[in-house]
Amino acid sequence: MYLDAMSFLDDEREAWRPFEALLVLTDEQLERPVDAAHGWSGRQLMGHVAAWQEVARDVERELAVDETSPIAARIAADWDSRGGDVVNAEIDARWANRPLADVRDEFRRVAGELRGFLTVVPESRWIKNAANQRTLAEETLDHYDEHKADLDAILAAVRK
Predict the structure, then answer these.
(1) How many Å separate Cα 35 from the centre of its chain?
(2) Cα separation of 13 and 105, whole Å?
(3) End-to-end CA distance of the chain
């Protein structure tokens, strides 16, 4: 639980920094599936993490102008009703069809937008609101932590 926005933003930025290593991989390295990363490629990891950052960014957009986020409620209900495997498979399919240059661009862009939007959301709507803070942490800090081993496996595989 964070008590101030700057602490959250600093921790989010530091947790995100290792993922930026994916941007320096070649196209061939990004397309290579890695068994130790659940069979995911770097491209898939980039798309997956960026897609959930987009969700957080969209929640932030709503919180910038309102006390609640219909998107957060809709995403949570979808996750609960259909399950994470189905939702994540749809995300993977959407990102698989995008040119790799677009995946790279979106991966860069959405991370910055995420931080930018968060700076305009009143703290009362996210830092002081436990449910909203939890949602934003789940889609960023917690999510990065969940996929850090995948990232490490992908980066290790390209060094071989």
Answers:
(1) 21
(2) 18
(3) 39
